[in-house]
Structure formats: C-alpha cells, structure tokens
Specification:
It comes from Miscanthus lutarioriparius. One of its GO terms (biological process) is translation. The structure is a single chain. By secondary structure, the protein is of the alpha+beta class. It has a domain of 39 residues. It is 20% helix and 26% strand. Strands 1-4-3-2 form a 4-stranded mixed β-sheet, with no helix packed on it. The radius of gyration is 26 Å and the shape is rod-shaped.
C-alpha cells in the first residue's frame, strides 16, 4: 500500500473509500494501485515522545540510610 498526501484513481476499477476520516483507494483489478492518504503514525508518535526524569530514590533504602549518618 502506498501512503500519499494526494490519492487519486489510477484506473477505472479503483474505488474511493473513506474510513475513520482516512481516504483509501482500493482496486479490484490491480492490487498495486492500493493507496492511503495521510502520514505514518509511528513517525508522529516517536516525534512526540515525552521523556520523564528518573524517579527519586526511595527513602527506606539502605543507601539513603548511609547518607543520613
């Protein structure tokens, strides 16, 4: 399946289908004509990944007790 910004029918057998707000082209004659409009959601998810700092050490650990003395 090709992912494109602009999809169009490539032959007379191509059908335009819209599902969940995404435009698809499905061809019954030539499967190579299959297309989807949009962009890769995996790339978007990786770009918007939020990195959190590590949690502070627990107060009941042995290393915290050593620093307190």
């Amino acid at each position: 399946m090709k992912v494109r910004a602009s999809v169009k029918r490539l032959c007379g057998f191509c059908k335009v289908v819209k599902r969940r707000g995404i435009v698809f082209i499905h061809c019954t004659a030539i499967p190579k004509h299959k297309q989807r409009q949009g962009f890769s959601t995996i790339a978007e998810a990786a770009a918007s990944c939020v990195h959190l700092p590590p949690p502070p050490p627990a107060s009941g650990s042995a290393s915290a007790a050593a620093f307190a003395e």
